[in-house]
Amino acid sequence: MSGYTFRSIRIDLSTRTVEIVPTPEMLCEEYLGGRGFGVALLSDAITHSWNAPEMPLVFATGPLVGTAAPTSGRMSVVSRSPLTGTIFDCSVGGRFGTMLKRAGYDYLEIVGTADRLVALEIDGDAVTILSAGELRGRTVSEAAAGYDSSWSTAVIGPAGELRVRYASIMIDGHYSAGRGGLGAVMGAKNLKLIAIRGGGTVTVADPAMLATARDAIMRLLRTSQAVFGEFGLAEFGTAALVDLMHARRMEPTENFRKTLFPQAGAYSGYAMRVRFNPKKTGCAGCPVLCKKIGEGRAIIPEYETVSHFGALNANSDLDTIIEANRLCNDLGLDTISAASTIACYAELEGRTVPPAVILQILCEIAMREPGRGDALAEGSLRYAASQGHPEASMSVKGLELPAYDPRGAYGMALAYATSNRGGCHLRAYPVSHEILRRPVATDRFSFEGKARIVRIAEDMNAVVDSLTACKFVFFAVSLEEYAKALSAVTGRDHDAQSLFRVGERIWNAERALNRANGFTVMDDDLPQRFFREEGSSGARVSILPIDRKAFLAARANYYRIRGYAEELASHEETR
Amino acid sequence: MERVIRKYIGKIEAQGLACRNDLLFLARDADIYANRPAVGSEQELFGVLEGMNCSALLFARLAEPYRSILDEVVLRDDIVAESGCLFPRDAETRTFLHDIPVVDSFSAEAIRSALARRKTAIIRNHGIVTYGGVTPEQAFIFFSSACFTTFVKYFSDTLRGAQQGALSAGAIAGFCRIWQETERVCSVKGMPLLHAGIPADEDAVCAMMAEAGRAVVEAHLVDSCFGNISYGTDDTIFISQTGSSLDELDGCIDAVPLAGTSSVGITASSELTAHRRILEGTGLNAILHGHPRFSVIMSMDCERSGCDRERCYKACPESRSVAGIPIVSGEIGTGPTALLHTVPEALRHSPGVIVYGHGVFTAGRDDFREAFAALQRIERTCMDTYRTKLSALGVH
Ligand code: SF4
Ligand SMILES: [Zn+2]
Fold this sequence. Notes:
- The complex is a heterodimer.
- By secondary structure, chain A is of the alpha+beta class.
- Chain A is built from 25 helices and 16 strands.
- In chain A, helix 20 (450-467) crosses helix 22 (496-516) and helix 20 (450-467) crosses helix 24.
- In chain B, strand 14 (352-355) and strand 15 form a beta hairpin.
- In chain B, helix 2 (44-50) crosses helix 6 (108-115) and helix 3 crosses helix 7 (136-163).
């Protein structure tokens, strides 16, 4: 089989041992790579605490990484989340995955805890653990400054060192393994930085077939407004969604108390284009290049970030949003959880947090300053509970919800609940069909058929995250086309349905790991606000509270489809 | 589920592709819904659904002339015999379906393995089977595409066969039978009554577009899912959304500011830029795009030799036409060889243009009457031209 290097690295920081281990062929066949590898590698350790030395932190590539398959430059970072307690993977771009593969490895598994702050350098075959005491407290950009562009870096900021529960790992400075606090896991291992480079190539079984598969994928991408259209991701990045979510009246505003922010135009994709005249950039191996860097090196934030530092915090100051994003990246914080935790704080304080104070709080959180910073560093759920109001946390399984109000898209509502890493839009990504009408439009205000659709999409995205490809291209293509690319790379026969079976295996494995940590159907639920309060209806669109009965019925359907009905029966939750 | 399935069965019947009794539509959320009980070998379809991660499955024995067309295409195509696949040459189907496997037996295993690879398959001597990965609507769309592409392929192959003097007596006899049925279903109807004049406000624009969309479908010029439509006002282009059906445009029209000040157009038709450039380049406000069959067939009729046939649809160097109607090349959507680079220019000199292997764009000034009439005229001309050409080649 091609497409893999069949070598991986296992490092124990407690004993400072570096082992080169074979990547088992069975692992490749059954779990593909990326997220799938992570799940398999964590299965024996999952009941350990996230900060126990036994808990692995995995950086895994997929079979397409380093090949000519479009958007194949991604990888997954996997461990157990300090925020949710679930198994947790982040799909992340940049060049790290490509470098890992070119250095000759399929994955990097790190266990143990170093006795003092260390860094890891992987230069092809040479793997070195270095002491990094001088980097303590350094920001991401400062810590990575010593590495030129021949390297790719994965770095935590002060937030990760101080175990902020939603600390991120930053790849190449601005690609974020953002959600779930994997930066805190890295911090708990006393690992500040990983730098990697390699000059090898990845063998492809049938390059001509891969070229044909690539052509088919590119042709489909070019038919997609959402990807290559004049308002698509390639032009505006995900910030293109600001106007759309506004028009659909589903932009979470003031901690989800409203769903429309009249001043959202201040930070729309268009507003940022006019202001910053950005250029395209993106992950290795990507023809789309959805990331945008503006004049003065201003990073144009993702939609979720602009909307949460905007509408969710009732803030229309674009400069603050840009600076909040920069601060989060440099301090190593997840933007979604950070913004949402501040919005939760604002609600409980009964006031709006002024722009300058938003920035100040971010620093307090990252430094875990005693009092407010330390309290908010625990995430919105723990913070709100400590104030006696857990219901003010807009989260599922402790993970703060991104910028798609579930009252405006019922598939999204169900998918937030069933997500096995908590309140995440990307597990089933119903925004694709409910809002962007791809690959086909569905009625966003109906649960009909959604249980099945959510299940199918969850399985599909488990595959996408394991290949490791980018979800954005699946606005236009399907597993059918990627199966061809994978067959060409590996020389093994794959089709869409065989890949779906792998996706289902990964999903069920993740669910089983969560179950082992005590998760039940009770955790597959939404904040009660969405069932009780109306959003911002108007302009012939009603954003009503979600009908709880209909939601529970759809969730029960989902369990039946998944074969989890017994879990539900044992909790008698359908009332 | 039942409501959705009933809607698509209605469309299949209205398009004349199959009768409800000849089709089995299975859709599921937690439970499976079927439009009728399965009979005989159709039971196998439950086995197909069981083994697939999808929402819906559709199988149909086609109505005439599609049934005979499908049989003839499968029977007479050498490549099918060699590869077990049909390779559509029309651009849209090629882009989305890639190819269509032909399955020899009506068994769950054979059908499943074909559908694991492609969105639709032909079951030899039986019909067409497709699935919906996300919703039942996709099964309907792919089914409709498969009918369209076999139709186009059959008439294209027949014309080429006649030009090369390679049609067997059996093929000619088959053609004559099929042609009679085809004339019946494709006969171009009269001009419907459409809104006249500049619409008063935004609601009136949308209503006028919905009316025109319905009219092209009802006139059998275009199948519901193949086409898009727009109308420009001073500062806005109103355009059908991606994946919308021309006969169901209510609530599926995006208002996109021409100055580009809002990105709500991210959900617009994949041909948004082509429409905008037509509007800006010609001053014509009412733009219609669809895939009428004989226009597509005639656009691919080219006897020039020495070309790389794989490039015709995206980069034809010739200036071609059929009965005075310009034919241009160009791919769907964006990219250096996209139709947005060729169609707007051609429409400056002609009320309509055919895109190679794809469809027709027409445009008019204040309302959709001119664009509709041009679309109808082009399709009628192409159908007549097709028949005349074949007659001249001795196929009557
Ligand atoms: S589309 Fe964007 S996120 Fe996806 S691989 Fe390309 S640059 Fe990275
Ligand atoms: Zn078209």
